[in-house]
Amino acid sequence: MAFSAPRPLARLAAPGLLLLASLALYGSGLLPGRAFFYRDVLHYYWPMQATRFMLGGLPQWNPFHQGGLPFLADIHSGVFYPPNLLFGVLSFPTAYALLLVLHHFVGQLGLYVFLRRQGFEELPALTGTLAFGLTGYMAGLSTFGPLVSGLAWTPWLLVVLQSQLLPMRKLAVLALLIAAQIVSGDPQTALYSALVAAAHVAWFPGRKEQLIALTGAGALGLLLAGVQVFPTLGLLAESTRGGSTVSYLSSWNLHPLRMIEFAFPYPFGEYLGVPQFWAWFMVKGPGSIPFAMSIYLGVTVLALAVLGVRRDRLTGFALTLCALGLLLALGERSPVAFLLEHPPFRFFRYPEKYVVLVALGCAVLAASGARALISGPSWRRLIPIAVAAVLMGGALVFARGVPESALELFASILREANMRADPSGPLESAVRSVGASLLFTLALLVLAALALRKRGGRAVAVGVLALVAMDLLRTTRKTVWLGPASLFREPAIAARLKEQTGSPPARLFRLDKQLKASAPPSRSPEGLIQLREWELGTLKSNLSGAFGLEEVTSYSAVELRRWRALMDAFAQQPQKVAELYAGCLLLTSSQAAQAGGAGEEVVLSDPSLGLAVTKRSECPQRLRTVTRTTAVADLDEALARLTSGSVDLKQEALVEGGTTKTYGPAEVSGLELDPRSARARVVAPAGGTFLVFATNSYPGWTATVDGNEVPVQVVNGATMGLEVPEGSHQVELEFTDPNIQSGLQATIAGALLLGLLFVSRRREPEAPPEAPTPG
């Protein structure tokens, strides 16, 4: 039933409410002195954007991380996503928070429009929209901004699919949405859209027309994003994601027991609050906290979803999304786990991410349920919800009435899970969680009773909307973490290190294992902020790059396969990797520095951080010559020789596909380094010399000797080098992404085709002339 509202304010009421919801979720990050900081925000996104604007122009090579790697080709950089230009105008914390709010609002608005076009009245459509936008999963995405950016366009894909646009224009708009998701910084959202679109095709009429539009739009979207896609495909072939193994798919799967959290907020404890999280056996991933910090869908949302199930196409569509999301999120435990080992799924980590499809499906059902409840549901439909409330009440009576038995029950659960913990904490977590869900369930039943007495009342509709919002926002308070904006500042150590690196700059090598022992605890909000302050002060992950310092170690969503193999091979001898990459400054712990290493001198220290910086007395230049080359067949043979200890890295280089040869001493002078080039004067003796460039080997690096191009060869498993003839020569190396030109051509072709689609008009059949009216 439609509810009237005053005009013209009614047109702004729904968007205004959705904007308020976005601000309620993420808006605290816009407050002065506040900032999102957890996970990739501080360690990855900030250095990424700082590097982008530091490099300027079209940033093709990143010299600051992992000994050099492609920048533009890393699709997570979001170089071609226009909204990311905000990072060049505003401070990073402000730009990041603003992008979160705006994209979240755009995504909510798209879902609202879709639901309205499905025939839902304003308030049920708003209820369904908030059931998705305020879910625990979306709250947890505050630490993964690019995922929110890309996800914003998925609901609009549904809107366009069901629009009355001319076929060619519909295809063009769909292509723009797909291209935006591809270049947004998290292309997995394009895969979400593909799955959502597949479910839509399966359930809604016009399958042939939809398939034609989606197939054409997918191809055109890839063309439009070609300037990003082509370099990225080249990088994938050289990265750990392009190999024959996909071991990272076993990380951050949705544990089946976590599905309890769909209906109960933090039933296993809070990650930073009290009682604390205890079910660590469910977490298997690169961090101690699951990717999805909360998967709370809302007990009110699930209850409405139960009421919303009908024998119609929309229900089939929503249930399909729920099933797809759940099957994929289970990862290696899923009966369809084999799909994750094949493209396109294999290119994306952490199956837990697919919970977003479950949230979207439940939100659509919740809109249907809200409409049913407002209209006055049958008592039969309310029975499952009432039974659930009785069971929750019984559980609380048991826990509070016979606490000894309840504690014994939880003690046995802990023993079964091989967990050594006091059962009182887990019991208290469960009691609080069940109590909160029971309260909201009872409130929903009260609204249902009111609706049965007075069908279609606006007060009931508003009450349902408010109840869903309160239910979800209560949990998001504990999921969205903010810290001081002062975390995004240059630490004192960075300026001191710049003095030590000299010119041309020496590289840093952070010894993570030694430093980890000095890290403060982080099981409280205050402790987590202190930990991030310590990590900033010790330049963890990619932070050194944010200040123009080059490092050998760092974190990247896409790692070069050869670099990773070298790091793994020397996991117990990291100084060897530092030597291979000309890492002259070692960031280590004060305790480890006291033990000292041969040829290392402490040049900087900060006892408050437990940090010491040592400098190697014999540090090779970035461009250096060797007196011997040894031919190796491939990476495996190079690693075997390097780890055997028989290779003198100062004098010998292992050259893949090269020759075994001895050279006389040579001289390198006038070394100049730019972000994607290097040059030096090399004076070689009779018989020439071999020049090693301590930067990651990657297609697109070319070398010239006095302007004449010479072959670049893979050296020491991961770096590169070239042979220089006798005499004095000017040697230059330069990087140009080998796929940027073809990608640019594809984008131009796509733009031309897009323009043709927008100006084209399908000729409508002419109406027959009207018959003359009888006189």
Distance, first to last CA = 47 Å
Total beta-strand segments: 20
Low-pLDDT ranges: 763-775
Shape estimate = globular
Q: Could you estimate the helical fraction of the residues in percent?
A: 40-55%
Q: What is the SS-derived class?
A: alpha+beta
What is the residue-mean pLDDT, rounded to a whole number? 92
Which key terms come to mind for this protein?
globular; five-stranded antiparallel sheet; 775 residues; four-stranded mixed sheet; single chain; alpha+beta; 20 strands
Helix-strand layout with pairing:
Layout: H1 9-26, E1 34-36, H2 40-55, E2 61-62, E3 69-70, H3 92-117, H4 122-133, H5 136-140, H6 145-151, H7 154-161, H8 167-183, H9 188-203, H10 207-224, H11 226-238, H12 299-308, H13 313-329, H14 355-374, H15 379-401, H16 403-416, H17 424-453, H18 458-476, E4 482-484, H19 492-501, E5 507-510, H20 512-516, H21 525-537, H22 561-569, H23 574-580, E6 583-589, H24 590-595, E7 600-606, E8 611-616, E9 623-626, E10 628-632, H25 635-644, E11 652-656, E12 661-662, E13 667-674, E14 677-684, E15 689-693, E16 701-705, E17 708-710, E18 713-715, E19 719-724, E20 727-735, H26 740-759
Parallel strand pairs: 5-6, 10-11
Antiparallel strand pairs: 1-4, 2-3, 6-8, 7-8, 9-15, 10-12, 13-14, 14-20, 15-19, 16-17, 16-20, 18-19
Helix pairs in contact: 1-3, 1-4, 3-4, 3-6, 3-7, 4-14, 4-18, 7-8, 7-9, 8-9, 8-10, 8-26, 9-10, 9-13, 10-26, 11-26, 12-14, 13-14, 14-18, 15-16, 15-17, 17-18
